[in-house]
């Protein structure tokens, strides 16, 4: 597996990836819909970038981030001192009280396929009955066998790489974007299709609303945001 990059490279990649549109949309959704002085959890928060952006718009919110990578936890604590960052596993981390809003962005594909449902189930347990969850991720075309999965991963990876280059990304970002495709095709990471992910969401949430943020063309692959409300 190509290792995840150092925190600075990862965070520096965000302005060049198509995924930047999903992150901006999540910030808008939180700004509009999170309750005043509510508690928000970013599960698998990575470098803490999104929490930093949310804090700019909604300083009233109590923000908590959880990630399993020591490098990202350390970077987040130094870079976003106003946010409470904890080390934890999406499969089993659980707080003393539930949150008004739970987000998980660009992360579930790091969880092996046979554990993704467990991750979603745990996320669903972290939100208050009247709260909501936002999950955004990159998805490949639907597939029914390993040959189709590899081709779907290669297709998404190529389109991601092409747009990243068009956005004039520096070479370290281009290199990491190539590594993402390598990981996806060889199943070192675990991107799935939107269709398969929605089947899991519908088991644990009463309302599932999904919007596409990239690409603008009609396609099954791409970046999607799902707004989920508890049963």
Overview of the structural elements:
There is one protein chain. The chain is α/β, with parallel strands linked by helices and 231 residues long. The protein has a single domain, classed as 3-Layer(aba) Sandwich (Rossmann fold). The protein is 43% helix and 23% strand. It contains eight helices and seven strands. Helix 2 packs parallel to helix 3 (49-57) and helix 6 packs antiparallel against helix 7 (171-185).
Which features characterize this protein?
231 residues, alpha/beta, Rossmann fold, 7-stranded mixed sheet, 8 helices, 43% helix
Summarize the SSE layout with pairings:
Blueprint lengths: L6 H7 L6 H14 L5 E5 L5 H9 L4 E6 L2 H10 L4 E4 L11 E7 L7 H12 L2 E13 L6 H21 L4 H15 L8 H11 E10 L7 E9 L1
Parallel strand pairs: 1-2, 1-4, 2-3, 4-5
Antiparallel strand pairs: 5-7, 6-7
Give the class-level CATH name: Alpha Beta
Strand content: 15-25%
The count of helical stretches stands at 8
Secondary-structure class: alpha/beta
List low-pLDDT spans. none
Radius of gyration: 17 Å
Total strands? 7
Q: Determine the CATH superfamily.
A: Vaccinia Virus protein VP39
- What number of domains? 1
